[in-house]
Amino acid sequence: MPTKCLFVIAILFIMGSTKSEAQIEEIRAINALSVNIKLLTTFSISCEAFDKSLKNQIKSRIITDKDSISALAGFISKPKYSKSNKNVDVRIKLICDKSNGEKIEVCTDGRKLILVNGRLIKENKKFLTFIKALVGQ
What we know:
The protein is 36% helix and 23% strand. It is of the alpha+beta class. The chain has a six-stranded antiparallel sheet with strand order 2-1-3-4-5-6.
C-alpha cells in the first residue's frame, strides 16, 4: 500500500514539473518597458495607453534569459486574482511573447498593484520585486 501511494505521488510530481517546463518553453522573450516609477503625470496611464502616452520616456529591454523567463512563468502560471477592480497607473509593462504567437501582458505601478492580462492580482511583494529587478529599478 505505501509503495502504491509513493508511486502516485511520484507521477503527480512528474506531471506538475512537466507542465511548468512547457509553460517556460512557451515564452520566447520578454519585452520589458519602463519609465521612472516616481514619474508624475496629470492623468493615470492605463496598460493599454502606456506605450503611446509615455513613448518618449520609455526604456525598452528584450529579455531572453531562461532563468528570468522561468521565474516569470512561475509567477504568472496561476495568479491569485483580486476581487477588487482598481485603476493602475502603469510605470512598468512586460510583454511576454509566446511561441504560439500569443502575448501575456503584465503591468504595474511599481509600488503595489499588478495586472496580468488586464486583471488585478492580489498583492505579491516578491513578484513586484522581481518585475522591478527585470527593468533595473
